[in-house]
Amino acid sequence: MSKQTSVVSRNYLLDAINSMSPPRASQPYSRSHPPLSIQVVVNMIRLFLILPFASLSCALPGLSWIQLSNGFMEQRIKQAFRARQGPVAIVDGLTQIPDADHPFMAPEPTDQRGPCPGLNVLANHGYLPHSGIVTQADVVSAVSEGFNMGADLSELLSVLAVAQDGDLITGKFSIGGPDSRAALLGSLQNILGVESSLYHRSNGVEADASATRDDAYSGDDHTMIPGLYAQMKSIAANYGGLYTLEAMKDVQQLRHQQSVQTNPTFHFVPITGVLVIGAKAFISEFFSNGTYGDGGVPNEESISSFFGAQLLPNGSYEFIPERFPDNWYRRGTPFGLVNAIDEILDFYLTRDIGFGANAGAVNSFVPLDLGAITNVNSLAASFRTHCRPTSRARYSSRLKSSSRSIRRWST
Ligand code: HEM
């Protein structure tokens, strides 16, 4: 597949995506998709809506979302400033992780674990609540203490997780599957159909083409797949067994190609696609052992422990709960938002991993026409055509199916 050499017209793109066959009903995590351009725009609008909350909560990490949205009463803001000393860990160069207060404890059946090995390992060592039901402040504090992730990056990720996959009232989300403990109304919340998990059941932050997780189309998008882990390892072998950024770029490109070839509903769009790319860079940046220098390059020993990949005598792998490797030191300098954007751009520009989607069949990848998306007139036309079915819809089966897909998406 060449890098977006033939960007198709907006109308063709919309038609192609709307004519997708619906996802397989038997798959619990599969979903229907709106037209690509509308998805991207809706994601952008969501991001703009939540960014003010992100910056506020970054400045005032002691506040929950409900407190932030409650009118910023003076008393609460003062409390938040006092609480500010608490949740964010102070980063002071190389520190051995875990410390004596955070021994490994395997998750119990009721504990939530999910698609993110970083959050899973923090919960297994008690840097995050062992239950896997977390708040934004929990996450910002834990990723800083455990991995030296910059607060700007962790705020953005956790705000996205709360906004897309969490409970806006409690500010909580489950790092695994849907869980009533994350919701204000507990199990009654299910009546409202609100999700609070990182599983790919809605338009959340989990997405296709992950390194060691399958696409949602397969039915399980969150469990480490030993075969995918072995594939990643074989790519690292081309780089001396080191999980360098170049190796991770190759992993991203291969996973993108595999999704195009095997997943008829493959979607790789901003913002979720950007996060998936970023997660590959995290493998090199955060799972390295700090004793190599300012982060160093991770090797098989640390990577296998972080991904919970246990080598069996027959050469294959099985999954065991993720844990920090022995004698491991977190990276010496924080890795923040600017670093992440820089590396994501580098991935995107140096590999064949264009945004777009399969149009309902394998190998039917339609590149996303970013020009059409940023054209205000085209956008208005898309919304008119797809969001407000006209009388023509009664006479055109194509238009009927198009508006059905919009209704499915918006319910
Ligand atoms: C700060 C809050 C964080 C949130 C909300 C978050 C969320 C997620 C989600 C939803 C995914 C699945 C993405 C996909 O579909 O590929 C993911 C993947 C991943 N995350 Fe995180 N994450 C966070 C922090 C971290 C940290 C601190 C690390 C590393 C120390 C990390 C490492 C990874 C890796 C390596 C993957 C890719 C797994 C794979 O592709 O097999 N994440 N994360």
Automatic annotation (TrEMBL):
<keyword id="KW-0479">Metal-binding</keyword>
<keyword id="KW-0408">Iron</keyword>
<keyword id="KW-1133">Transmembrane helix</keyword>
<keyword id="KW-0472">Membrane</keyword>
<keyword id="KW-0560">Oxidoreductase</keyword>
<dbReference type="Pfam" id="PF01328">
    <property type="entry name" value="Peroxidase_2"/>
</dbReference>
<feature type="domain" description="Heme haloperoxidase family profile">
    <location>
        <begin position="100"/>
        <end position="346"/>
    </location>
</feature>
<dbReference type="InterPro" id="IPR000028">
    <property type="entry name" value="Chloroperoxidase"/>
</dbReference>
<protein>
    <submittedName>
        <fullName>Cloroperoxidase</fullName>
    </submittedName>
</protein>
<comment type="similarity">
    <text>Belongs to the chloroperoxidase family.</text>
</comment>
<feature type="transmembrane region" description="Helical">
    <location>
        <begin position="44"/>
        <end position="66"/>
    </location>
</feature>
<keyword id="KW-0349">Heme</keyword>
<dbReference type="GO" id="GO:0004601">
    <property type="term" value="F:peroxidase activity"/>
</dbReference>
<keyword id="KW-0812">Transmembrane</keyword>
<dbReference type="GO" id="GO:0046872">
    <property type="term" value="F:metal ion binding"/>
</dbReference>
<dbReference type="InterPro" id="IPR036851">
    <property type="entry name" value="Chloroperoxidase-like_sf"/>
</dbReference>
<keyword id="KW-0575">Peroxidase</keyword>
